[in-house]
Amino acid sequence: MKGSAKSCVFYAGLALFVTGIVLRVFLPNATGALAALPYALLGCGAGIIGVGVVYMLQGRMHKDDPSWQKQQKIEEKDERNIRIREKSGYSVWYISVFTLGALTLTSAVLGQGIATWLAMAVLLIHCISYFVFIGLNNKKY
Question: What is the arithmetic mean of pLDDT over 8-35?
Answer without folding.
Answer: 87
